[in-house]
Amino acid sequence: MPAYILELIVVGLGLILLLLESFLPRLGAKGLAAIGSVGLLVVLFLLPSVTGAPSESTGIIWKFYSADSLALFYKGLALITTILVLMMSVVYVPVMQRYLGTGGGVGEYLILPVFTCAGLMWMASANDLTSIFVSLEVVTIGFYIMVAYMRRNVGSLEAGVKYLILGAVSTGFLVYGIAFLFGVTGQTNLDVISTVLGLLEGQDKIILFSFALLLVAFGFKVAAVPFQMWVPDVYQGAPTPTAAFLSVGSKAAGFIVLSRIVDAFLGDHGVQTGDGSYQDQIQRVLLVVAGATILFGSLAAIPQTNFKRLMAYSSISHAGFILLALACAYPVRMDMASGEVVAFYLAAYLPMTMAAFFVLCIVRSSRGEEEISVLDGLGKRSPFLAFVLLVSVMGLAGIPLTVGFLGKLYVFQAALDQGHFVLLAIATLGAAAGFYYYFKVVRSMYWNAPSDQDAIAVGTGSRVLLALLAAAIIFLGLNQGIILGFLR
Question: Could you tell me the pTM of the whole model?
């Protein structure tokens, strides 16, 4: 069946969940999350059976939609992330109920990620500027609601307002970038734009300006410096499952679109380095932004005492590493294609980040706080949660034998192959800083004395999911061919 049927199934699942929540309120949060997760799992299992555009196809949808292996891989990431967010939201329900009042509304919060997932899957296949814009707005509107969902929590409302305003600004830049690029090429399809750009002469300034506008727009989405100012406050104020969804799902979708756009500007017609061409200048801009993002995210994370703010700055740093991989893929192709390095890093980032946020959800429901200090003595109060979080931060820091180590290794190899030694030094500094600020979490869990001796209850379902995530971090680190196999 055509690949776009998957998005229609996910939208239909969201509509069914809305009806069930309205007419069968006895299902509760666990019932809705279970039905939503099973439905998304079915879609995930259908993923290998879908097809792309047939060679004789003239359907209008294939002019806006791509179903290559990279797109299908990102669809899988979106589905897995959404399933984990639904399970995480069930654990977080007691916290949300404190801020939703008598009107409730927890059911709708569990349904929003499903519709957002459909937008993320559409973004993964968007190969036209118009479909990119529409799918991006579908995703962004869902996140606007989820960020500010705890309406009686001042922090959540503040995060929602900041995300709304800055998201609108980034959308404005995106529209202007699309307009300028259409003006110079007369096309909106990225494949056609790539061909046209290779034939243009004397239009470097307008091409550079249109790329700069697009880079600003997606710089906001992927949290690249200097467009990262919204990330710490939004992560801290948003419900923890939403912060996890932003950190993984939104970032992955933003990067696949950005990689397609960069490939349209640089990929098919090469980079004429050293002659002042617009391709060379675009690559330099990407390298500068990547270096600044790594440096800022890594150094700003060091003094943080709030766990979610720590993860926010960590997310910025990881975005820098991904940007570095994207920039280093030109002009000479590596053994791994540019999109594969980015996709591998994001796939590695998924289990590590989701495990960390999942543990925080459980601790937050028990203690009511999100400071790193709430983890004091976690190794004694809940050895299982402490071990899962230990494996997670080990992977995020890039410790060998974890999948996070391989993600950073591929980035370092890319920078080394291209001779970007200054960026390599910056990346080394960022990785070293990561060891320090992640160690604060480990010290809190195993060195600091617990503030109370009460054990933290962990449900069977949560225990199984956390065990799977921890196992994935180690197993994929020892068997990186699994991710590469799915990519190819």
Answer: 0.90
